[in-house]
Design the sequence.
């Protein structure tokens, strides 16, 4: 992966971060979600594709209750921001398919042999709070707020690797992680990043490839080193506020506190929130910021 792939361009997300840095108000992203218009749109589609579905009234406009299931709509709403109008209906139906009565499920991969699934293994990062409710997933601590998990990549989704699956494969967890990290590194060779500049100086980088593994690239030292080189810095601060976003900026940036605020805001808004924890990468090692360094970032 060469520095040339880091395109110098501004996207909506970059504009939002700049607005936070200079103190401007950021326009609301979720009006139709908060006032119920988006819920009404989804309910209308449900009535068309599943007339028998029982939708229970709910005071919260950001969710729908279907029978005994409550479906949060915030992640779907955020996902649709990047979808053309022509594909909107298809994306909503695809999202609903796994929730609605009568929907067929995907056959679980637990019975597949290890050799068969090895090419599809990837690493992911999940909040440790989330994983307390899912002890069946294979996991190991990564930081104070995040843990490493393992997934089987599929064309439109991925499946988490469970303890039962690893036991059936009869392989060591270290071997699973080594393969998963290697596979993600190979899939990341052509991933681009968006570089914001201040005059002729690199300001910060955003990596949001759309493949759902941007946060997980905290586990790829060579990828992080490409970010560091693109920022022309001896060391960088890195954050993974959502599954689909990795942020980086020079450790000595004069705007580091504002960038840290932006990381927290982006984590809170989602979708697929991960952490606003800050890490430093010096070209060799990745570590969480210490107490003094966090204080310098307003933490």
Sequence:
């Amino acid at each position: 992966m060469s520095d040339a792939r880091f395109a110098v361009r501004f996207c909506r997300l970059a504009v939002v971060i700049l607005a936070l840095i200079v103190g401007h108000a950021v326009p609301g992203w979720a009006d139709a979600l908060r006032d119920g218009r988006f819920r009404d749109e989804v309910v209308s589609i449900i009535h068309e594709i599943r007339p028998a579905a029982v939708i229970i009234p709910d005071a919260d406009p950001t969710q729908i209750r279907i029978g005994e299931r409550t479906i949060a709509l915030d992640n779907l709403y955020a996902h649709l921001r990047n979808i053309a109008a022509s594909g909107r209906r298809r994306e909503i139906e695809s999202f609903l398919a796994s929730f609605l009565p009568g929907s067929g499920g995907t056959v679980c991969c637990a019975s597949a042999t290890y050799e068969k699934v090895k090419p599809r293994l990837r690493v992911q990062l999940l909040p440790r709070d989330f994983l307390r409710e899912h002890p069946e997933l294979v996991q190991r601590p990564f930081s104070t707020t995040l843990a490493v998990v393992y997934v089987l990549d599929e064309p439109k989704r991925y499946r988490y690797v469970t303890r039962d699956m690893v036991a059936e494969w009869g392989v060591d967890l270290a071997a699973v992680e080594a393969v998963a990290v290697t596979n993600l590194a190979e899939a990341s060779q052509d991933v681009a990043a968006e570089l914001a500049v201040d005059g002729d100086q690199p300001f910060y980088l955003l990596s949001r490839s759309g493949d759902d593994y941007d946060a997980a690239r905290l586990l790829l030292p060579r990828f992080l080193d490409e970010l560091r080189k693109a920022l022309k810095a001896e060391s960088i601060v890195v954050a993974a506020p959502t599954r689909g976003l990795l942020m980086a900026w020079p450790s000595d940036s004069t705007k580091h506190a504002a960038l840290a605020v932006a990381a927290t805001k982006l984590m809170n808004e989602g979708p697929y929130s991960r952490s606003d924890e800050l890490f430093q990468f010096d070209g060799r090692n990745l570590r969480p910021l210490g107490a003094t360094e966090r204080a310098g970032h307003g933490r």
Remarks:
- Confidence is low (pLDDT under 50) at residues 24-30, 103-108.
- The first strand starts at residue 6 and ends at 7.
- The CA atoms of residues 68 and 94 lie 20 Å apart.
- Residues 35-97 form one domain.
